[in-house]
Amino acid sequence: MEKQTKTAIILGSTGLTGGILLQLLLEDDRYGKIKLFSRSSVGVSHAKIEEYLGDLMQLEKFETNFTGDEVFCCIGTTKSKTPNKKVYKDIDYGIPVTAAKLCHTNGIPTFLVVSAMGANAKSSVFYNRVKGEMEGAVLNEKIKNTHIFRPSLIGGKREEKRIGELLFKQLMKVVNLVLAGPLEKYRSIKPETIAKAMVIVANSGYETNRIESDKIKKIATESD
């Protein structure tokens, strides 16, 4: 009897965490097809990959092709990269929420999304508030398996240089040494850790909706 494999959808495969996630799924025999929805090609040729290129601000236009078993949403921008607040919200709120709606419409049972530590729909900080509102809207779609990952500052090398962020990351390497116990969740986290935890959660029947940064690390390291 032929082994049944799953179809995964990735949003944000050209980004840091999404790119690592793509490699993990390509190497994972549980996945037979990986659909990538993005503005530009990842430049990877593989039999598992199906690419759908276009404006993710209009993700609903992909409804017919937006089918599978799991959706991994790694979409996200920054204040420095996207200073316009409306555009920022269109990306960090609009794309994940539209993806969740498509999951609901097309009966996709599992939705995993990267949010951020400090996400709070009632926050006075715009960026935290947007993430919190996104989480609430995603949960309102009542997808059977919804998992929200709340990492702290994500480490790793990006193609574009963000001087302020690079300096802060260097500082965090020192600060991480003293963040222990209840403060451990504030330590910076590697994109590899987030991607690995997402794959584990997608395949483990994990029940928690919101997964904080320290728990993300624990999930990833416990499987080693």
From TrEMBL:
Keywords: Membrane, Transmembrane, Transmembrane helix
Positions of transmembrane segments: 7-26
UniProt-listed SUPFAM superfamilies: NAD(P)-binding Rossmann-fold domains
Pfam families: NAD_binding_10 (PF13460)
Domain NAD(P)-binding as annotated: residue spans: 12-150
InterPro entries: NAD(P)-bd_dom, NAD(P)-bd_dom_sf
Top-level taxon in the UniProt lineage: Bacteria
Keyword Membrane attributed: yes
Keyword Oxidoreductase recorded: no
Record's protein name: Nucleoside-diphosphate sugar epimerase
Native species: Zobellia amurskyensis
